[in-house]
Specification:
- It is a single chain.
- The chain is α/β, with parallel strands linked by helices.
- It has two domains: about 280 residues, Aldehyde Dehydrogenase, Chain A, domain 1, CATH 3.40.605; about 190 residues, Aldehyde Dehydrogenase, Chain A, domain 2.
- Helix content is about 35%, strand content about 20%.
- It is built from 13 helices and 25 strands.
- The strands form seven sheets. A seven-stranded mixed β-sheet has the order 14-17-18-13-12-20-21, with helices on both faces. Strands 9-8-7-10-11 form a five-stranded parallel β-sheet, with helices on both faces. A four-stranded mixed β-sheet has the order 1-2-4-3, with no helix packed on it.
- The protein is globular and about 80 Å long.
- Bound molecules: nicotinamide-adenine-dinucleotide.
- The site of nicotinamide-adenine-dinucleotide (NAD) has 30 residues, from helix 7 and helix 8.
- The site of nicotinamide-adenine-dinucleotide has 30 residues, from helix 7 and helix 8.
- Belongs to the aldehyde dehydrogenase family.
- Keywords: NAD, Oxidoreductase.
- It comes from Carboxylicivirga sediminis.
């Protein structure tokens, strides 16, 4: 597998600075410390990455500020053209980049290709959007006055991303931020820096080919300390941070102290309600994919299944059957459903989550836990698990980032919706029903309190066309499609007087 990695990095012309230490072409400074990168596939160290030091960070910010002065003057549709070229590079490199995502992060090859496809899709979306950064016009209350609003870029957008979507989250933010006229500094997850180096290189090539400053897209490497520098940095008007609630709380407070803006995409604790009117031929595969996809490490993974008491036995039986089909193993094998968890700490947290659930009275219908795969003994593989639990169990309040599915029984829909909403997080939610009244109730203001509410599709796997994000502890941010672009711009209200008078608003008279 080392050979495969080498082949991919050679393909992208990412070269180590010293034997075994990588920065690609990223500026890291002379005091760079080293970060050890391990592949979850086989548990082996695959690279040592140099981390950005403080002096280098300050220089990167300075360069970004200068690059912004140029980039904001490039017309938006022309900025879209640059993003189109980046999307084309991604199209050409989908296979290579997808493999690297699978190897470095551990998600299945199918899902890894899907992640790169999301990057391509958001580039396409951003290209179209680059001609649609519309502002409203208003009728002024004063004669011969015109009012309208316009949108200007913010400056530097700082992007802090999580390991589980190591490349897509950056592109959701950066593609939109760029066409809006911003420059971006990306702090990728310390668990997935190689994929970040490759993405950075691809965009750097595109900028160079267009004679544009490289600092329109910068990458900083390292652990949370680098993210903390960004959060506290008054030169970065917007921090878009994706990760745990704990991280979001720290970032939000730091950014608020300097009156910066933050866009937060944090943990989820997503539920699917299966009513007595559900089509189980849809509900069962949706649950299966939602619970074990990315080994339960999606922010939108299905964690809680709230099932009507009349169909619960059937649901359990069919899910049990579906779970027998799960293929766990090397994510680089095309037919693997479930690769490893990201690291050893994730396996430990899963195992202790199972224990905690048992201690609170959870009844395990399917025993999960750590798993050894022949030939990949040091990889971080686990078996998925299913537990039947009471709605009031404290474990239900937490996001366990692993493939543990809780099943809860309910009697009436009002109760099911109350159970669903009774958690601190509010990202994704689903109802499985063929009954129009049940679906509409779930979608109404009396229904789901989440940022995403689905009918007859699972909780995971959002399309880029919609605004993505969640309520409550999920952070309230919206990224990607719809009008989420407004988060990356500042609104300016303009009033023009084309008369020879100076009428004041609200009819105020101020005689001189
Ligand atoms: P994490 O919070 O440990 O790390 C995420 C990023 O934040 C990393 O780059 C990390 O270095 C940085 N970071 C950590 N603490 C920081 C601090 N105090 N200041 C600045 N930066 C800091 O998360 P993770 O384990 O990589 O990812 C899993 C979590 O991300 C889960 O909770 C998952 O639900 C969430 N997630 C949410 C979404 C969403 O869109 N809502 C998408 C993907 C992942």
């Amino acid at each position: 597998m080392k050979h495969m990695l080498q082949e991919i990095l050679d393909h992208f012309e990412i070269k180590p600075v010293n034997e075994g230490t990588w920065t690609g072409q990223v500026f890291v400074g002379s005091n760079a410390s080293l970060l050890d990168v391990t592949s979850p596939v086989n548990g082996q160290s695959i690279a040592k990455i140099k981390c950005t030091d403080r002096n280098a960070y300050d220089k990167i910010v300075e360069d970004a500020k200068t690059a912004f002065l140029d980039w904001r003057n490039v017309p938006a549709p022309k900025r879209g053209e640059v993003v189109r070229q980046f999307g084309d590079r991604l199209r050409a490199e989908k296979k290579f980049l997808g493999k690297l995502v699978a190897f470095e992060m551990g998600k299945s090859l199918q899902e890894s290709y899907g992640e790169v496809q999301e990057m391509i899709d958001i580039c396409d979306f951003a290209v179209g959007l680059s001609r649609q950064l519309y502002g409203l016009t208003m009728h002024s209350e004063r004669p011969m006055h015109r009012m309208y609003e316009q949108w200007h870029p913010l400056g530097i957008v700082g992007i802090i991303s999580a390991f589980n979507f190591p490349v897509a989250v950056w592109s959701w933010n950066s593609a939109i931020a760029w066409i809006c006229g911003n420059v971006c500094i990306w702090k990728a997850s310390e668990k997935t820096p190689l994929t970040a180096l490759v993405c950075h290189k691809l965009m750097a090539d595109v900028l160079e080919a267009n004679n544009l400053p490289g600092a329109i897209s910068s990458l900083v490497t390292g652990a949370k300390e680098v993210g903390e520098w960004m959060s506290a940095d008054k030169h970065i008007p917007l921090i878009s941070a994706t990760g745990s609630v704990r991280m979001g709380q720290a970032v939000a407070q730091e950014v608020a102290k300097r009156f910066g803006k933050s866009l937060l995409e944090l943990g989820g604790n997503n539920a699917m309600i299966i009513t007595e009117n559900a089509d189980l031929n849809i509900a069962i595969p949706a649950t299966y994919f939602g619970a074990i996809g990315t080994s339960g490490q999606r922010c939108t993974s299905t964690r809680r299944l709230i099932v009507h008491e009349t169909v619960i036995e059937q649901v359990i039986e069919r899910l049990f059957h579906a779970y027998q089909q799960v293929k766990i193993g090397n994510p680089l094998d095309a037919d693997t459903h479930m690769g490893p968890l990201v690291d050893e700490a994730a396996v430990k947290s899963y195992v202790s989550g199972i224990e905690e659930c048992k201690q609170q009275g959870g009844k395990f219908l399917l025993e999960g836990g750590a798993l050894q795969i022949d030939g990949l003994e040091n990889g971080y593989y686990v078996k998925p698990s299913i537990a039947l639990v009471d709605a009031n169990l404290p474990v239900l309040q937490k996001e366990l980032f692993a493939p543990l599915l809780y099943i809860i029984s309910y009697k009436d829909l009002k109760e099911a919706i109350a159970i669903q909403n009774n958690v601190p997080q509010g990202l994704s939610s689903t109802i499985m029903t063929m009954h129009m009244q049940e679906a509409e109730c779930f979608l109404s203001h009396n229904g789901s309190d989440c940022g995403i509410a689905n009918v007859n599709i699972g909780t995971s796997g959002a399309e880029i066309g919609g605004a993505f994000g969640g309520e409550k502890e999920t952070g309230g941010g919206r990224e990607s499609g719809s009008d989420a672009w407004k988060n990356y711009m500042r609104r300016q209200t303009v009033t023009i007087n084309y008369s020879n008078e100076l009428p004041l608003s609200q009819g105020i008279r101020f005689e001189m």
